[in-house]
Amino acid sequence: MLHFNIKHLSLAASVCLVASSACAAIKINSSYYSPRNKERDKRSETTLLVLHTTEAPSGSALRKLSEMGECHYCIDEAGRVYSIIDPRRIAFHSGRSMWNGKQEVDNFSIGIETCGYHNKPLSSAQTQALKELIELIKTTYKLTDAQVVPHSQIAYGAPNKWQPKNHRGRKRCGMQFAMPSIRAKLGLKSRPTRDPDVAARRLVIADPALAEVLYGKMSAFTAPQPQDYEPKSISPVIGKKPPARPSTGYQTIGVSNRAQDIAGTAIRSSTTLYVYPDGRYATGSQLTSGAILKLPYGTKVLLDYTCAGTVSSQRPPLLICGSKWRSPTTYYLLNGALIPGNMVNDGKIPSGTPIFIRKG
Ligand SMILES: [Zn+2]
Fold first, then answer.
1. 152 CA distance to ligand 1 middle (Å)
2. Measured at the alpha carbon of residue 140, what is the angle toward residues 47 and 119, in degrees to the nearest 5?
């Protein structure tokens, strides 16, 4: 920790030479410096600064951000600036993201979290601290004002039960930082004038109100709430009924579909089940955050599921889960594969097979 402080201060000090007015006032607190730092690679480039809102008060937000290594800096309600991940390393703050055709925005960006909400003004102390930190980072990485963007502007969603295409509008995080009036308070004179990925038809717009805030004149503080809004994992779509659930009730961890993208705040829940490619499984509450971040590609994630029991000669599936034993949303873990209840060969369910059932 001491080692970090010295390194960090020297980095800040060297930046002061070119941005003396900006960073003279910035005091950086290292009490939430993340244990994930040692696992993170260095970035080879920095072409975006991504601004977030935690959607939670600082007490809980800082602990989680530090534990998971989810941003470089966090600014609390009183305007205190915390260092979470070394600014030269990769922080996991963007999730599934794309800007101008480039995916995995974490690999080329700095992320700042502000403890607050996408549709509520920040405190003046927070605004002032954010302004100074933005100036420092813009100077350090030679960023233009239009390279400072809210998270919602670069996040995108994969097809889901609401939206059949890759789409912008996965979340509204940091939405207020697109408003010209807020940007003026942060010393930002311009913003992106259009969504390059929507323009190139890589993405469609799933949240028209968000698009109006990002590129039009709508206020983040009065924008209509989307219907069917589930903040973490599902895209809001105005005016559409969700189609039927997809045929598989689980998602698989891959390059741009990490545990935190899939499970959001339920990442360490006792009703989130992780099934490793080798057939082992655990609930989110049984794993450390470090173990969850290291889950191999191919790990399946079931949300809102519990293990109802394990098949034995005394306990056949019907005794374990009643009428749910034949349901398409019930899964049998057979040789590392998840077989839905309506497709399982009931003559061939070996003893020791776990059965996962959806809650509710
Ligand atoms: Zn965010």
1. 7
2. 60
C-alpha 330/C-alpha 248 separation (Å) is 10
pLDDT tens, per residue, the chain with 360 residues:
334 443 444 444 334 333 444 445 689 999 999 999 999 999 999 999 999 999 999 988 999 999 999 999 999 999 999 999 999 999 999 999 999 999 999 999 999 999 999 999 999 999 999 999 999 999 999 999 999 999 999 999 988 777 889 999 989 999 999 999 999 999 999 999 999 999 999 999 988 899 999 999 999 999 887 654 444 444 444 444 444 444 467 888 887 778 888 888 788 899 999 999 888 999 999 998 888 888 888 899 999 999 999 999 899 999 999 989 999 899 999 988 899 998 888 778 899 999 999 987
- Tell me the CA–centroid distance for residue 356 and ligand 1, in Å: 31
pTM of the model: 0.67
Buried b (16+ CB within 10 A) or exposed e, 229-240: eeebbbbbbbee
Measured in Å, residue 24 CA sits from the centre of ligand 1 at 28
Please tell me whether residue 145 adopts helix, strand or coil conformation: helix
The answer to whether 69 and 40 are in contact (CB under 8 A) is: yes
Strands 48-53 and 102-103: unpaired
Q: For residues 246 and 207, is the Cβ–Cβ distance under 8 A?
A: no
Which residues 6+ apart lie within 8 Å of 120 measured at CB? 176, 221
> How far is the centre of ligand 1, averaged over its atoms, from the C-alpha of 351 (Å)?
44
Q: Cα(79) to centroid of ligand 1, in Å?
A: 18
CA of 52 to the centre of ligand 1 (A): 4
List of domains in the chain: 15-215 (3.40.80.10), 250-358 (no CATH)
| Ramachandran angles phi, psi of 147, nearest 5° | -90, 5
